[in-house]
Amino acid sequence: MLRLTSDHFPVFVPFGVIGFYRYLWYIIRLLAAWTYRSIPLPEIPTYIASEDVTIVVPTIDAGEEFKEAAHSWLVGKPKEILIITEEKMLGPLQDLANAVDPERIRVLTVPYANKRLQMSHGIKNTTTDIIVFADDDAIWPPTLLPYVLACFEDQKVGGVGTSQRVQPCGDRFTVWEVLAAFRLSIRNIEIASSTHIDGGIPCLSGRTAAYRTVILKDPEFLHGFTHDYWLGKYQLNSGDDKFLTRWMVSHGWNTYVQCCKEAELLSTMKPNWRFLKQVLRWTRNTWRSDLRSLFMERYIWTSHPYVAYTMVDKLFNPFTLLSGPCLVAWLIAKSTRPVADGGYHLPWWNIVISYVVWLTATRTAKLLPHLWYRPQDVIYVPAFIAFGYYFAIMKVYALLTLHETGWGTRAGIGDPTAATAAADANKVAAEEKQMPESPMPRYPEQQQQYYAQPPVEMQTGYTPPPGELQAGYAQ
Predict the structure, then answer these.
(1) Domains and CATH numbers, the chain
(2) 112, 131 in Cβ contact below 8 A?
(3) Predicted TM-score (pTM) of this structure
(4) Phi and psi of 58, rounded to 5°?
(5) Pairing outcome for strands 80-86 and 53-58
(6) Can you point out the beta strands (E) in 253-375?
(7) CA gap 76, 132 in Å, rounded
(8) Of the candidates 156, 212, 210, which has an alpha carbon nearest to the alpha carbon of residue 470?
(9) Which residue, 104, 106, 273, 337, could crosslink 343 as a Cys pair with Cβ 3.0–4.6 Å?
(10) How far, CA to CA in Å, does 429 sit from each of 203, 386, 392?
(11) What confidence tens digit (pLDDT) does each residue in 151-197 have?
């Protein structure tokens, strides 16, 4: 591919340079992912799910798939499951909860559908040491909770994520679901490699992630989480998992991802063209969060330099990818001109065939970890190639429309500014009736006494850094 013509100018060198760079780093990621090891279960665990875990599920339109997901969560024996929804959905969701386990599932409401407000309401009503956020369609293996809790044996770990696979909505995978499965397979390699190389991760996926409650109970976090603005004027509702991950980094907490079968969840994706709307929302969230991490907060450079590199690489990725078709078009134009006028001997069809063969071979190689388990998906490689170029154009479009903060795939999600204003008004009214509150406890003995009290919203608080919390646990 470096030189396929009889001309003196090596026309394929640009392809070779870009390809060498891209696939060198992909090989590095593969090697790091293969040498990654998940954290094993401790002989005597510090945290027990039945005593220390509350699962918080923000939702507005959970259906029958919720029952399968909830049953999978209950196998791990959490202390409680909190379903947070808007007021008009209380009846249907209460019926779903009663059909699964009315004793361990509570349904709480907020006035408006707003994911971050729903999550913060769940945080305030949590009485355990660990909070696990889960999507209403996330199906867990029976061993997920013990393996997630194993990571918290390290008192410096504040957040834990898991690997994921796609669960088809119907009997068979649609092309959209296969594309999503390809993306998740690549993502599983990326998060395992970054965790192994420098302990960081670009995002603890909101499909399922666990956090120390003491971190999220901090009033500073709760306010920042529900009053998050892009450029100071566009309030954000989605991107909650990105915010949580950045908060861990900026406040000195470590994260870990359990990439193993014992902690690998199943999640559904949109089985039709609406998947593209999901991807657009995720892409905008990634642009906003990565730009903040790299250039505004900048903690990522010293905490997780490899993750910082991957973020920078993703900034340029759509442009390097789109350079390929541009170079091919230029070569085709040159090949149609006479050699005497500066054209190439290589005919245009030879260039096209070479490019298609190169794309097919390299993209198939990149998907080999996925095709090892689902070889029948090899027929979708051309669709994955086409989607890659569409995604590159989408990333450029997303960059130019970061002010668009709508959810995109759920009509019930309203204006986040109005929802937050209503929540703040309710908060003020509640404060006028509340008794004085004690500050956030710093050590486990104090936390047990604190969590035994009815949950109330705190006015003052303190979240210790990991080192200080570790010292407290040592006492």
Answers:
(1) 13-25+312-400 (no CATH), 36-303+406-416 (3.90.550.10)
(2) no
(3) 0.84
(4) -80, 125
(5) parallel
(6) 254-258, 265-267
(7) 12
(8) 156
(9) 337
(10) 35, 54, 48
(11) 999 999 999 999 999 999 988 999 999 999 999 999 999 999 999 99
